[in-house]
Amino acid sequence: MMEQRTDEMECRVLSIQSHVVRGYVGNKSASFPLQVLGFEVDSINSVQFSNHTGYAHWKGQVLTADELHVLYEGIKLNNVNHYDYVLTGYTRDTSFLEMVVDIVKELKRENPKLVYVCDPVLGDHGSMYVPENLYPVYKNKVVPVADIITPNQFEAELLTGKNISTEKDAVEVMDLLHKMGPDTVVITSSDLPSRLGDRFLVALGSQRSVKPDGTRTTQRIRMEIPKVDAVFVGTGDLFAAMLLAWTHHHPNDLKTACEKTVSVMHHVIQRTISYAYEMAGPGRRPSPAQLELRMVQSKADIEDPAIVVEATVL
Predict the structure, then answer these.
(1) Residue 17 phi, psi dihedral angles, 5° rounding
(2) 124 within domain boundaries
(3) β-strands 123-124, 127-128: how paired?
(4) Is residue 7 part of a domain?
(5) What angle (nearest 5°) sits at the alpha carbon of residue 237, between those of residues 10 and 19?
(6) What is the total count of domains within the chain?
(7) Per-residue pLDDT tens for 201-245?
(8) Is residue 3 part of a domain?
(9) Are 181 and 144 in contact (CB under 8 A)?
(10) Among the options 119, 147, 237, 301, which is catalytic?
(11) The whole model's pTM is what?
């Protein structure tokens, strides 16, 4: 790791996400992988729960918009409000989300090169799992200040008002999302049929960039990702964090960034599955506790993932 330049090592991320005492979701899912890849991660915990809400029981506290503001003010008063990246995920409260937007805008004034990576969590498979009043905030306030977004198909359709039933639709939706603000869009999962059969799902990505001669160009990619027969929590948060890291290391090469991101996901999930099924015993469904991501055990894969998925350039 010694050969990295100092400016690369000093890359600072402000991550505003959930915290759990036990397990991996939100900041717990994002911090370790980013730190392993050389990023300084400053965390604001939007909630502090005992564990994720997929367990039978959970307890904890929620940070209000005012409390978020107080924490940011402290950072600002010490004049250390210089960030290269902001990362956000699941939020349930409109005033909190609006405060995040205000903070992002101010940090962008402080550093115009700041990149805001946003997972616009609204729902999946046709239904919303956040309050509906968050939708206009994401659409009109958050996405316009975002640089990289990672919606699933449902979220991409919702934000653009356009349905995806073909690859062409998906490309049009990604173009519409670009028009709303972000230069990098990755649709993390879709219902499009995979060329490799129904054991795979299709993800798509699109990145707008300006060539040295000033002309605009768009790279679009498609990936066939092996489906997994289990429900994981924290994978979306890991995906957004890894996309942040690998787009940083491979700017203007969305293909490589996505291949590395998806490969990290694959290795972590495979390790988690084998562990969970081993712990559960033959013929038994693993519990939420057994299905917690094997994050620390995957350190080597996070640092240098063997590429298991090749992206197709469209």
Answers:
(1) -150, 180
(2) yes
(3) antiparallel
(4) no
(5) 85
(6) 1
(7) 999 999 999 888 999 999 999 999 999 988 899 999 999 999 999
(8) no
(9) yes
(10) 237
(11) 0.95
